[in-house]
Amino acid sequence: MDDLRGVRIGIIGAGAIGGALIDRLLSGAGTRPTDIVACEPKEARREEIAQRYRVRVSADPVEACAGDIVVLAAPPLEIKKIIQTLAPHVGHHPLVISFAGAVPIDLVEATLPPGSPVVRVNPNSPLIVGAGFNPVAYGSSATGQARALAERFLRVLGASPVVPDMQMNLYTAITAVGPTYFLPVFDAMIAAGVDGGLSRQAAVAAAIETARGCAQMVATRTEHPEQLKLFTGLRPLQDAAVRDLVTKAISEAAARMEAVQKQATS
């Protein structure tokens, strides 16, 4: 059974990531609102989440510990304090899934009781439609039934390749931040199509199918992407400039995550 029907899930942090997870669990995992508790310090956000999704909400993160899965979706610099608060309440070893960027898995494991099954996931926003690319690292105790439960959870979100924990900050810069590289291009292509006289529906379809085809071509052909520009000599974008821009953005994002990690672990 790949759905999560009957699995009780506590989510700590109901911001962008926590909210997206609630949305996906309810729409794509068979999870019932009564099986989710969302713990969020901001009252206005708690009220918004409760009204939109009909899940139970709380200001106390300990409320998330009673279930089968505890999800850490709070900001990275808050995680150390949160797991110190949780530690006395997770002796029953629920599965802990951390979506907190820049927080290494060994920090979480060292703070929780010995034997706690911990999984670290690096999400990206397409998870909201089950199409995320979410690299995952498994802690030393995330084995057997705990790992099987984690894999069920992650299947709902999209692809989850197993990667070394030490590479997570780089993956953040490429995949978690990745939609911010692609989506402005979509927006510009759609706007140009509409400005030129296409309907919005036609412009959206043109942008989406072009991107889908390019992705499939890169995935299935052995040539370098540069060699796949087959059918037009037009080059309105300078290849070197685009490459340099994206490379610089990824490098800066990775460096920023390394800096945040130092703060989060100090």
Topology, pairings included?
Layout: E1 9-12, H1 16-28, E2 36-39, H2 43-53, E3 56-58, E4 69-72, H3 76-86, E5 95-98, H4 105-111, E6 118-121, E7 132-133, E8 136-138, H5 144-155, E9 158-159, H6 168-176, H7 178-195, H8 200-220, H9 239-265
Parallel strand pairs: 1-2, 1-4, 2-3, 4-5, 5-6, 7-9
Antiparallel strand pairs: 6-8
How would you portray this structure in words?
By secondary structure, the chain is α/β, with parallel strands linked by helices. It folds into 2 domains: 9-165, NAD(P)-binding Rossmann-like Domain (Rossmann fold, 3-Layer(aba) Sandwich); 176-265, Orthogonal Bundle (ProC C-terminal domain-like fold), CATH 1.10.3730.10. The chain contains 9 helices and 9 strands. It has helices at residues 16-28, 43-53, 76-86, 105-111, 144-155, 168-176, 178-195, 200-220, 239-265; strands at residues 9-12, 36-39, 56-58, 69-72, 95-98, 118-121, 132-133, 136-138, 158-159. The strands form 2 sheets. It has a 7-stranded mixed β-sheet with strand order 3-2-1-4-5-6-8, sandwiched between helices. Strands 7-9 form a two-stranded parallel ribbon. Strand 4 (69-72), helix 3 (76-86) and strand 5 form a beta-alpha-beta unit. Helix 3 packs parallel to helix 9 (239-265) and helix 6 packs across helix 9. The chain is globular, with a radius of gyration of 20 Å.
